[in-house]
Amino acid sequence: MPHDHNGDVQVFENLSKAQGETQVLKGPQATLAEEGEPPSSSSLSFGGAPLRTQSLPAAGSISTPQEPQRALSTTTATSGTRSDEGANSQNAEGPSTSQAPASTKRSCRDPLTKRAGLLEQFLLYKYKMKQPITKADMLKIVKQKYKDQFPEILKRAAERIEIVFAADVKEVDPITQSYALVSKMDLPNDGRVCGRKGLPKTGLLMTLLGVIFLKGNRATEEEIWEFLKTMRVFAGKKHFIYGEPRKLITKDLVKLKYLEYRQVPNSDPPSYEFLWGPRAHAETTKMKVLEFLAKINDTDPSAFASRYEEALRDEEERAQAIDAARAGSSATASAYSRASAATANTPSEI
After folding, report:
1. Which of 204, 282, 290, 310 could lock 301 by a disulfide, CB 3.0 to 4.6 Å apart?
2. What does residue 220 show for φ and ψ, rounded to 5 degrees?
3. What is the pTM of this model?
C-alpha cells in the first residue's frame, strides 16, 4: 500500500500547532518544564581553557554566539524552557542562554528562522520514522509564501541538524528531488547505532571525541560524565535520543570500536578513562572533530590553538601515509608488469 506523504505532513502540522510549533519529538523541553528546572549554560575547565556547554535553543529560535570563543560549546538535542523561566535563570559560572536576548528576540521574530525550526523538526520526524524526504513535502512545511526563500530556510535547518546530530542534509536523487540525513561517521543504521528507528547518535559521539581530544587524547570517566551532566545526560537515566547513556557509551560505542574504555594504569582504587577507538581514527580525523566543535562555537578550528597544531600534524601524517601507500602500490604494479612482460617474451619449450 503506497505511503500517504500528504497525511504525514498534516499529522506533523497538527502536532506542531498543538505544541505551540516547537517540537514534534517529545524531549527534554517537556521534561524540564514538568520538573520546573530550566536548562542553563555553564563552563568547565579543559586544559586551563573554559569549555562552554549550553542548551540548544527551541525550534524557531536558532541563534549562534555573537563572538568567536576559545571554548567548546556543546549542545543537547533539547529545546529551551519557558521565557519566564529563562529570564530568571542565572548561572554563577557564566551567562545563561537567556543572556543573549537581542539575538534571540530577533530570531524569534524572523519568519525564516521560524520556518527553519519547523522544517528541522519535520526532517527529524521523517528520519526517525525512516520515511523518504522530498522537496515537495518540505515545501508544504515551508508554505507557498516562502517558496522563494526555501534554499535559505533549508540551509538554516540543515546547519542546526549538523550541529546537534552531526548529520548532513543531502540531496540523494536530483530527479525525484529526494533528500536524506547522512551521518558524518559510519555508525550502524546511519547513526542510530541500535534498532531501526530513532535519532542519530553521531552528534554525541563527535562531542565525546572532541572532549577526549581537548583533554589530551584521553579523558577520565569522571571528566566525561561531568561534561555530559551539563548536557543533562546522566548515567542510568534514559535519554529521549541516546537511550541509556552508560550502555551507549561504555558498551555499544566501545563494542563498535569507536571508543576505548580502559582502566587507568596503576590506579588504586581502579579508575577508568576513554580514548579514541580504531574506528574513530579510521572514519574521522582530529581536524574534522575540531571543525565540528568550531561550527558549534561559530568560530574557526584555529581558535583551539595547540590542538589545532596537533590536528594539522595529524593531517600531514595521514597525507604522507596515503602517498607512501600509493607509491608502494605503483611500484608493485610496475614490478608485476615487468615480470609479466619478461614471461611473455621468454620462448616456451616444445
Report:
1. 290
2. -70, 160
3. 0.67
